[in-house]
Amino acid sequence: MIPVETKSPPDRNARDIWQGAEKLLSDNFRSSTRFSRHIRLRVLRAFLNHLFSLVVAWSALGGLSARPVFAQSLAWDAMSKHYDARRGETNASFSFNLTNVSRAEVVIGAVRPSCGCTIVKLPTLPWRLAPGVISQVGVDVDLRDRRGLLQKTIAFDTSAGTNVITITVKFPEPDLREKNQLVAFTDRQAVFKGDCAKCHLDPAVGKKGGDLFKAICTICHESEHRATMVPDLGALKNPTDKAYWDHSVRLGKPGTFMPAFSKPFGGPLTEEEIASLVAYLVGRFPSARQAGPLPN
Q1: Cα distances (Å, whole numbers) of residue 236 to 57, 220, 288
Q2: Do 106 and 74 form a contact (C-beta atoms < 8 A)?
Q3: Is the pLDDT of residue 291 over 60?
Q4: In 3D, which of 137, 144, 145 has the Cα closest to residue 167?
């Protein structure tokens, strides 16, 4: 009879050792008195050898090569950057460096910031990055009317997958004036209540015309630290007349800090006081011949 050769695993000795280990286990685990420390070590050594043999065989059959390999084509100097904003800043700028570390061209087809206040500065899309190319992305963030911690993401859709970078901006804690502004923006009539009344209400008592204007209007409209939302009455872009000023003083302007000064609407002024203030405003701030639309 002609012997037939059978294909053995990559490690034939490991198979024999494992068979021996099985025999040792079956013969000796039944009797704890015979299962000495020496035998336990032999069994453990045989098991480890067999496990190694299985790994070698699996690799030889292509098991390891079948696993997916994920490669990062774009290398960024950082995936997240932080900035501590200073009081009064209206814009923050970031700069990110990126490198194509792959062997193929990477094409950036779209950029998706998470908010409209975030502007990404980069070449015209599609942006093609050859292998080894180092480039830069600029990011500008509008900080106006922001508080606390601001976090924004920017997604780059590329031919090698999507890359997402993150920017965070921390704002300083608001001072007392800023806290009062937040309260006033939520409730325009808050300036006539509590501690705010000391500056915005009490000085108006018994005054009319120009004295009334100086007492309760200049504190906001002519202040050295006038809020950006508060207009300079001497530089208004829209035409004004008596009706414009009367409407503004009497009803205020919703969505701003401007409160309603008329008593029926929660303000402190009488009809006589409003009329005197309006007459002063018309003479103090002359305007075009035709008045513009009334404020909302």
Answers
A1: 84, 15, 11
A2: yes
A3: no
A4: 137
